[in-house]
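It is worth pausing here to work through a concrete case rather than discussing structure prediction in the abstract. The textbook approach is simple: state the sequence, then state the predicted structure, then interpret. We follow exactly that order.
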Amino acid sequence: MARSNAVSKTRFLVLNDYGMGGTWWWVHARSEQEVLETFADVEVVHTETTRAEAETWGLDEADVDGPTTPPGLVEARAKRDAQRGMPGFGALVGRDPLYLSRQWDEDDDPMIYLMEVGPDGRRLRQVELAEDGMAYRSTPEDWPFNPPWVDRYDPAWVPFVIGQEEFEDQWTRAVHDPSRWD
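Step two, the predicted structure:
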């Protein structure tokens, strides 16, 4: 069944925040959910001050149903289209907070990161589990950047979900060492 165009659209300020910067657009859609279901790795910005500033930026505008999409959003749409048919697509939507455990190999120093993630995909708290058994905890005050890490529609995150109890157990035993993030 084709999507009904009878529902009026709203103009949303949309950001792909990659930490040290971001790309912004105005997107016309029927809902915030429609924006997030259509484009991967974006967020809808609601701050009135930012929205007012954005009015002066000359941003590209897009319509979720439009035949053309500005650069950046083209890739975000293609990524979301590819994800849509995968098992687990959208499975994490509405799970707030979300707890994840994932290993990353940074600088030949493998580390397991346990993260508490808020509804906007940003980390709220984090525990780093080192190979030597040490556990280090941190919060946004410790990080120079905290872009949205987790797109809840992306099925790639589903295998990393853990329970709150597992996260809290590690958080309780972890130490805070601000020198790790200087």
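Step three, interpretation. The chain has two domains: 10-84, 98-181. Residues 98-181 form one domain.
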